[in-house]
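Q: Could you fold this chain for me?
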Amino acid sequence: MRLRFAPSPTGTLHVGGARTAVFNWLLARKHGGTFVLRIEDTDRERSTDESRDAILNSLTWLGLDWDEGPYFQSQRVDRHKDAARELHAGGHAYACFCTADELAAERSEAQAQKRNYVYSGRCRRLSRDESRGRQEAGEPHTIRFAVPPGRTEWDDLVHARTGFDNEGIGDFIVLRSDGGPIYNLAATIDDLDMRITHVVRGDDHISNTPRQILIYRALGAEPPRFGHVPLLFGSDRQKLSKRHGAQSVEEFRALGYLPQALVNFLALLGWSPGDDREVLGLPELIAAFGLERITGKSAIFETGKLEWLNGQHLARLTAEELARAVTPWLLAAGIATEEYLREHREWYWNLLEVLRPRARLLSDFVTLGRPYFPARISYQPEAVSKFWPDPSEAGRLLRELHVTLASMADFEKIATEARLRAMAEERGIAFSDVVHPLRVALTGMRVSPGIFEVLQLMGRELVLQRIEDAIWHLEGGSLSAVS
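A: Sure. Below is the predicted structure, expressed as structure tokens.
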């Protein structure tokens, strides 16, 4: 079994293309096959090295390694031209001298008659001598495939028996007037030469399949098996677009998603393992994957489901794996240095374990973890308005808390809890009326891990500094509340 993923380097790797790559990769790995990477870069105006590198980096980040390639279609143009000449010599293609204006007139006539436009085939009716003479005279022309009468059908790996009437396909161009190959010729010849046995791609390619099968048959070759997977739609049932949010693998990586979570999510778009499992790592996906469980229905891209899956995969990481994933985010945010994290490794790993249940994305560890490092923090406006409604009263409470916590000989959890509860009782207030203002002072947030976990993770010195900063803020310091 030989499968391929063949992106065009005209932009970053879209999640729709990534899902196609995932399906092909899983199928190759499941059956011990070969996964071939081919870059279809014959569109020289739109193809860029930056896009190519971005696609390769995204595939590598996702863990979708390839066995062959990357091959570059642009390096095979002479082979494509040879194939077109072979089709022409065999009577399966012909020169078309129709001008753009003539073709536009045909199209306008079809529209006026409210019928689908199919090329009339007028140049197909030229005699061989006339056609040769016009070519030899240097008259501009394309090469069109001569579609035979009948119907082209195949057993689709997803949709079962599928077919098109050849009359509705019409004679299609395989070489442009400048000698450049058209997609259907280039892709077919590349798949043929690379011995691709299975072509799994999106439903948007289904109309290309009969054309490619016809080229295979004209060359006396057996076509591969074709399977067309459902397209991706947003939650509004409209085709996935920028209005639905992030679109590329790069964007999801930048938001803080784990590669294994994104692969897991993409695999479930139009496929299921046949049981109730939803959280699957790569080995589990490989073992369960099969085209027979791909549905023909449109797949809905739900970002909320992806976030949930990411949280589940975060929970699966070992402490070391979690630290390895989170550390670059903290370094990039300027919260800590590698040296600091190395010197405080046990404390750091404990912090990550406390924050892990509240995090959905790697970026959440930046937001949630910032208060536990020495730099100043800011205060969420909603936290200030809810738990510091009276700045004077909040300041008095925090001053008392500062004295209390500074004077304690034992700063362990049992001792701090007993002392704060006693303080609330002495003041005649609910314990929560002590905890919530203190939480805002320590973290700047409305919610956090348990207050005693926060106290232990911060340690007495940072706790006292946080309270001093909060008092300074409440008394009119320049540190303003920001979101």
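A (continued): The longest strand covers residues 34-39.
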